[in-house]
Each structure stands twice: as structure tokens, then as C-alpha cells.
Design goal:
Blueprint: H1 3-8, H2 14-42, H3 48-76
């Protein structure tokens, strides 16, 4: 059984899931800022060594974005059925 599947077989409490979703959203914003900044810096005139550093930052930020997307998919699988108000 994959670790992702194992994690989704047990439901987290809704308040935990909500908090983790908020953190994942904030992390996405920070990662996007890093990706944009590294792209803009890479468009400037840089020495070879600096270009390697920017490339490393960009690659790591893309990896972080991929990991964060995986976390968000797991959190989406934690959806609880919404309670509906029934008219009597």
C-alpha cells in the first residue's frame, strides 16, 4: 500500500484538515514568490556561478511546489460530507 493511500484511509479531524489547508495555501503563496523572483533574477546578467545558484533555487522551489500539490491532494481526500439542514 502506498504511503499516500495509507494516509487517506484515516480521516483527520476537520479542524486539523482546515488548519493544514490554510498552511498549504500560505506555503503555495511563498513558493510562488520564490519562483517568480528566481525567474526574474535569472533574466538578468549573471556570472556562471550565480546562474547555478539561481538554477538550484528554482529547481528546489519547483520540487517544493510539487510536494505541496501532493499534500493538498491528500487534504482534498479528507473531505467530510457536509451536513445539510433538513426542512421539517
Amino acid at each position: 500500500m502506498s504511503s499516500e493511500r495509507a494516509m487517506t484511509t484515516h480521516k483527520l479531524p476537520p479542524e486539523v484538515t482546515s488548519h493544514l489547508r490554510h498552511l498549504a495555501h500560505d506555503l503555495s503563496n511563498s513558493i510562488e514568490t520564490i519562483l517568480q523572483a528566481s525567474y526574474l533574477i535569472s533574466q538578468t546578467k549573471l556570472e556562471a556561478r550565480s546562474k547555478r545558484w539561481i538554477s538550484m533555487i528554482d529547481e528546489a522551489a519547483h520540487d517544493a511546489a510539487r510536494i505541496n500539490r501532493s499534500l493538498r491532494e491528500i487534504l482534498r481526500s479528507q473531505n467530510y460530507p457536509q451536513k445539510r439542514n433538513r426542512a421539517s
